[in-house]
């Protein structure tokens, strides 16, 4: 059974921003693109490293709705987690999002 987990107030993640949250041992990257929230696991399925930020804590490239892995250039669609460019071939985990009482929430497995 799935449950909703509150991450932060919605006014703390403005358009064009992203943030990574730890939930039950999983790092979840949440993106605000044009006022719409998207969430994926912050884990490149190609090499097992983070996606949302590079090693110097700079935001990784977001090309449209695709996050580009800062190491090898693989891409994932943040709207559904699909791998869209090699060397990434396995989709990344995707999370449903919503805002309730001014709190950004993601749905996770119970």
Query: Strand order of the main beta sheet, please?
Result: 2-3-4-9
- State the major sheet: 4 strands, antiparallel
**Average pLDDT score:** 95
- Portion of residues in beta strands equals over 45%
CATH topology: Rieske Iron-sulfur Protein
Question: What class, by secondary structure content?
Answer: mainly beta
Number of DSSP helices?
Answer: 0
CATH architecture name:
3-layer Sandwich
Q: Identify the CATH homologous superfamily.
A: Rieske [2Fe-2S] iron-sulphur domain
Description:
The protein is mainly beta and 110 residues long. It has one domain: 3-layer Sandwich (Rieske Iron-sulfur Protein), CATH 2.102.10. It is built from no helices and eleven strands. It has strands at 2-9, 18-23, 26-33, 36-41, 62-63, 66-68, 75-77, 83-85, 94-95, 97-100, 103-109. The chain has a four-stranded antiparallel sheet, with no helix packed on it. A hairpin with a 2-residue loop joins strand 3 (26-33) and strand 4 (36-41). It is globular and about 40 Å long.
What is the gist of this entry?
This protein is an all-beta fold. 0% of the residues lie in helices and 47% in strands.
Give the helices and strands, then pairings.
Layout: E1 2-9, E2 18-23, E3 26-33, E4 36-41, E5 62-63, E6 66-68, E7 75-77, E8 83-85, E9 94-95, E10 97-100, E11 103-109
Antiparallel strand pairs: 1-11, 2-3, 3-4, 4-9, 5-6, 6-7, 7-8, 10-11
Features:
single chain; mainly beta; Rieske Iron-sulfur Protein; four-stranded antiparallel sheet; 11 strands
